[in-house]
Amino acid sequence: MRVDEQLPARAYRVTRADLVRYAGASRDFNPIHWSDRFANGVGLPGVIAHGMFTMALVGRAVNEWAGAPDAVVDFGVRFTRPVVVPDDDTGTEIVVSAVVKQIDPDGLAELDLTATCNGEKVLGLARAVVRSTG
Amino acid sequence: MPLDPSFEGRVYPPAPPYLVGREKLREFATAIGATDPAYHEVAAAAALGYQDILAPPTFPIVISDAAGQQIIHDPELGMDYSRVVHGDQRFVYDRPVVAGDVLICQHTIESITSRGGHDFLTTRAELTTPQGERVVRIWVKLVQRGEG
Fold it and tell me: Is B61 in the A-facing interface, judged by CB distances under 8 Å?
């Protein structure tokens, strides 16, 4: 990694099946993540992805960019816009990209992260600090 | 009714110890599509110097969410969870969580503020081993939207 380097964007397909699987794995069974009826009732256009599922996908990208499954030492996001996941076979797509903001003398790299869905940012203030390997 | 700012600084009792299971980590990694062998195979994690498979970075939310129920359902605090959305999320790691870890989660309310009719509650969870080794800290900001 180098300062100002733009890391290669990664795209993740998200379907209703993914949300069901994540609900079970995370034990987050909030019905806004599986019931259109419930989601509409609270003013959402439809079922939305768990914010923590989006963050988990970003975490995958961060560790892959860093080149190690244990690279991340600090990881934070703000959830700014819901990711609506239609009930069809294609679902939606989350695209994750990053810029290296700085690298300290100990090799800790700070990444500015961006996640978009349908061209709109779904996270704000998203950053990670990773141990960089050169 | 807005959240009572005098709850700032309140420390909740530690949750019962959570034993991090290998199959639970595999299930979680699979659910998020994390295919790195260190999340699935003990030998791959051992090659990196760990006793057992690693948890993906956001896995600790499973532990802190369960323990955090005591805040959400604290009758004295009186949150209305039907109006709550997840605002901010941050993890700071001393080391990765690994299968076999026993983790004790303790929550503190760091701040309560109100703005524009909405309430903002920030909690910090510390996950430590029974031996007192701190493993990860987790900050969550919840937004309780105004009524009506």
Answer: yes
